[in-house]
Amino acid sequence: MFPTPIEKRSRAARITYQSLLPLALILWLLPLIAVMVFSIRPFSDFTQGNYWGVPSSFEFFTNYGMVFFESDMPRYLLNSVFITVPTVIGAVALSCMTGFALGIYRFRGNLLIFFMFIAGNFVPFQILMVPVRDLTVDMGLYDTKLGLILFHVAFQTGFCTLFMRNFIRALPYELIEAARVEGVAEWRIFWFVVLPLMRPAIAALSVLIFTFIWNDYFWAIVLTQGPDAQPVTAGITSFNSQFVAQYHLMSAGSIVAAIPPVAIFFLMQRHFIAGLTLGAVK
Amino acid sequence: MSSSTTPALPMHEIRAEATWLQRNKMIVTPLLFLLPGMLFFAVYVIFPIFQSFGISLYRWDGLGEATYIGLANYEELLTDRNFEISLVNNVKWLVLYLLAIPLGLFIALFLNQTVVGIRLYKSLFFFPFVLSQVVVGLVFSWFYLPREGLLNTIIMGLGFDSLNILGDPTLATYGIIAAGLWPQTAYCMILYLTGLNAVDPEQVEAGRLDGAKGWKMLWYVILPQLKPATFIAFVVTIIGALRSFDLISIMTNGGPFGSTRVLSFYMFERALSEFGFRMGYGSAIAVVLFLIMLVFIGYFLWQMWRDERDARRG
Q1: Is residue A219 part of a domain?
Q2: Nearest CA distance, B65 vs chain A (angstrom)
Q3: Which CATH superfamily is domain B76-313 in?
Q4: Fewer CB within 10 Å, N- or C-terminus of chain A?
Q5: Interface of B with A in 150-209 (CB under 8 A)
Q6: What number is the ipTM of this complex?
Q7: Alpha carbon distances (Å) from A80 to A18, A150, A185, B54, B191
Q8: Where are the domains of chain B?
Q9: pLDDT tens string A204-253
Q10: Is residue A4, in this structure, part of any structural domain at all?
């Protein structure tokens, strides 16, 4: 193990390390801690210039209550859910199939198609912006959740295919050969042999894609406007102009907007990190 | 592989299935499985790239008739001062964003221990990456506020003058890059933590016996084994740097005086904001950004292709 395990060092080194850890963490999360402190202060603290002293009162419930009951925030959150969940399902379903095709079969153009998916996944969004916006307007889907979902499904299929194909490549190929020898139809091999083995990959991808889509901002402002379809990332800017300079409410609002992906991360940490670090180890 | 007719099947089924479809099923099956995904990807990703190349040759406001003007949009770019600023800022982003890789490695080395509670520390160090860039942007713009912000409270507490980071054209871009480095460093850290986990203990022991320690051990024994992690960190950091948009839009909206624009933001501004709907000109900017990215994409693909080839031989 590198660096040398701290247990093998001197007592002084151990104590220094143990006390350095929380300090480093506080320093690392300082901007976030600042926002959390803001979000529980009363408005009067800001008018009196008491930004960093002890809060004059604890207003957690008032501030977060405002976010949930006196603003459009719940609508934006709901929009985010209705955009994110179908996208996750769609992209994972499509990429299970593409990953299966590219991971199991040998045919001409296999690698070419695979690399097209990878390359497309890396392009700047701006090169897609004008045509995708036009297409969405032409289909009558501008400012609808469906318009956003369709694009997200398509774009995420690139990354998901990369992920699924590499995962399927690592499965024992003998299983598939054995099934073929038994005369099992190809689609049944997919459904009954490969798909059950892909469960960890599906979990990891779902968690990752959920976070990516929840956090998307660019496509939200290109393809939607207003509280009917906008997800929370875009909605928060309208929220902030509604409560301009009221830092206690704006802070509470952004914390609320950030909670779902953070919760998913802490609940599904193992899957999340397995997905993110795929390929980091050979 | 394609001999799938087995004695287990009843006679009449074999005859019925020995059709063209049956004989070519090893080609037809993958094609059918690929079809929906490829269709989506082609319509929303592949075709639009080419369409953007086309649109960049037109003058078009997005609604009325488009007029073909050849390379006039690109000629205009050559003398556009804002384009130049954006390009220079993109270079700053690219160079400074790469700091996330050594920073991430540093934190990973710091956290690669087995003391009580280290798992929670690792998660908490990582979790800025899970926040959306919008939230990161807001958090940092409040952190930087001249009067209310914590950063300036600390700076002034130490006896220095307060800094209006996002209001100062010479500092603003660096302030935004610092905000971007926060989640990006977390990402690189988790890649390296995973990589360090898989480092071969025998090689470390062998290195120790040979008298390598500290920097030498890191450079000659550990880093070579972390190569796959470094490659991915490099890919995601480069792509992230060139994609930077959300933070700029949230923190400064391109200002002050347009000093924080990058190509991705300037393109959006030209094509879809109060500055007017110049789709053709915007597309020309997007094409330039795409070509810059293509250099990196080409390099990444080439590396991956080499890995694939080696994997096949091995």
Answers
A1: yes
A2: 14
A3: MetI-like (1.10.3720.10)
A4: C
A5: 150, 153, 182, 187, 190-191, 194-199, 201, 204
A6: 0.93
A7: 40, 14, 40, 33, 28
A8: 1-42, 76-313
A9: 999 999 999 999 999 999 999 988 999 999 999 999 988 888 899 999 99
A10: no
